[in-house]
């Protein structure tokens, strides 16, 4: 018996324990990393730590001249504290652009197949248990690397460009997967991992980043709660429907996902404003009032408040 075989025999009874233990390593790293994460100026100011918030703001901006931005954040914080019913305010006309964008991004994230592929396809395609485990490891590695790509590029190329570029690539990759499934080639792990990488560096993280940048302070907590609920709801819907859809539609299910990718890309192109380098407190003036479609909700709401209509 070779040394490697002897090692495998010793490890075998402990396999699941080792696998579970290894999963704890990222949790430990996450916990240690959290100790070095700086609180955001908005959070500090909203909780009354004004001097600390100003100090962090200076550190982030790299300049001592942060008084105008600090005053804007302070003003927004005072407005947020006066709001007694954030969920009710979320339904106001002036908050409709943020709410619609947040909800649709979560729907697009799931209906583009981002979770269906990674959770179900490998097993459904007849992979054995070992191959499924290897595929999960590959997907996890691609996930980490793609997230690093997103972190590096999101503030360089912008949110819209990253989503539009990903839409094209997801469409092509899903078409390739559909063709491969159509001609009944069983080993598709490479193509599936490529398709998973693209939403991981775009639609995956941006589905959470963009709502956090667009909701004003007075409705941010409520808006993020709605985003999470919608995401989990449609994750459940896809998880329940995917196997039945795959059995009936076969490779055509990727045409279904591709259709949603096209819809997402059109929505991003026409209705999603760029939020790069725009502070939350300036979103109304610099983004919503300048957008060809969403500005009508802001303008109409202001006229209603002023008694003009």
From TrEMBL:
<protein>
    <submittedName>
        <fullName>Sugar transport protein 13</fullName>
    </submittedName>
</protein>
<feature type="domain" description="Major facilitator superfamily (MFS) profile">
    <location>
        <begin position="1"/>
        <end position="276"/>
    </location>
</feature>
<dbReference type="InterPro" id="IPR036259">
    <property type="entry name" value="MFS_trans_sf"/>
</dbReference>
<feature type="transmembrane region" description="Helical">
    <location>
        <begin position="99"/>
        <end position="127"/>
    </location>
</feature>
<feature type="transmembrane region" description="Helical">
    <location>
        <begin position="133"/>
        <end position="154"/>
    </location>
</feature>
<keyword id="KW-0813">Transport</keyword>
<feature type="transmembrane region" description="Helical">
    <location>
        <begin position="161"/>
        <end position="183"/>
    </location>
</feature>
<feature type="transmembrane region" description="Helical">
    <location>
        <begin position="253"/>
        <end position="272"/>
    </location>
</feature>
<feature type="transmembrane region" description="Helical">
    <location>
        <begin position="14"/>
        <end position="37"/>
    </location>
</feature>
<dbReference type="InterPro" id="IPR045262">
    <property type="entry name" value="STP/PLT_plant"/>
</dbReference>
<feature type="transmembrane region" description="Helical">
    <location>
        <begin position="225"/>
        <end position="246"/>
    </location>
</feature>
<dbReference type="InterPro" id="IPR005828">
    <property type="entry name" value="MFS_sugar_transport-like"/>
</dbReference>
<dbReference type="InterPro" id="IPR020846">
    <property type="entry name" value="MFS_dom"/>
</dbReference>
<dbReference type="GO" id="GO:0015144">
    <property type="term" value="F:carbohydrate transmembrane transporter activity"/>
</dbReference>
<dbReference type="InterPro" id="IPR005829">
    <property type="entry name" value="Sugar_transporter_CS"/>
</dbReference>
<keyword id="KW-1133">Transmembrane helix</keyword>
<dbReference type="Pfam" id="PF00083">
    <property type="entry name" value="Sugar_tr"/>
</dbReference>
<comment type="similarity">
    <text>Belongs to the major facilitator superfamily. Sugar transporter (TC 2.A.1.1) family.</text>
</comment>
<dbReference type="GO" id="GO:0016020">
    <property type="term" value="C:membrane"/>
</dbReference>
<keyword id="KW-0762">Sugar transport</keyword>
<keyword id="KW-0472">Membrane</keyword>
<keyword id="KW-0812">Transmembrane</keyword>
């Amino acid at each position: 018996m070779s040394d490697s075989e002897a090692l495998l025999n010793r490890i075998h009874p402990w396999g699941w324990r080792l696998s579970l233990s290894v999963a704890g390593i990222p949790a430990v790293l996450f916990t240690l990393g959290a100790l070095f994460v700086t609180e955001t100026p908005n959070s500090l100011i909203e909780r009354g730590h004004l001097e600390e918030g100003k100090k962090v703001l200076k550190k982030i901006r790299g300049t001592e001249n942060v008084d105008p931005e600090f005053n804007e954040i302070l003003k927004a914080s005072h407005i947020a504290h006066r709001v007694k019913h954030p969920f009710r305010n979320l339904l106001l006309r002036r908050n409709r652009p943020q709410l619609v964008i947040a909800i649709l991004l979560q729907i697009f994230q799931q209906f583009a197949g981002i979770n269906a592929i990674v959770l179900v396809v490998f097993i459904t395609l007849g992979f054995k248990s070992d191959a499924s485990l290897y595929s999960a490891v590959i997907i996890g590695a691609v996930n980490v690397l793609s997230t690093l790509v997103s972190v590096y590029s999101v503030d360089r190329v912008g949110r819209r460009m990253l989503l539009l570029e990903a839409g094209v690539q997801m469409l092509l990759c899903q078409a390739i997967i559909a063709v491969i499934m159509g001609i009944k080639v069983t080993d598709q792990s490479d193509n599936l991992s490529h398709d998973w990488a693209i939403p991981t560096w775009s639609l995956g993280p941006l589905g959470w980043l963009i709502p956090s940048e667009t909701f004003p302070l007075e409705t941010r907590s409520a808006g993020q709660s709605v985003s999470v609920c919608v995401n989990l709801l449609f994750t459940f819907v896809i998880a329940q429907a995917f196997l039945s859809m795959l059995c009936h539609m076969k490779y055509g299910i990727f045409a279904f996902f591709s259709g949603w990718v096209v819809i997402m890309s059109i929505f991003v192109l026409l209705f999603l404003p760029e939020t790069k380098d725009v502070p939350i407190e300036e979103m109304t003036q610099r983004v919503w009032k300048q957008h060809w479609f969403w500005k009508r909700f802001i303008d109409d709401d202001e006229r209603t408040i002023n008694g003009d209509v």
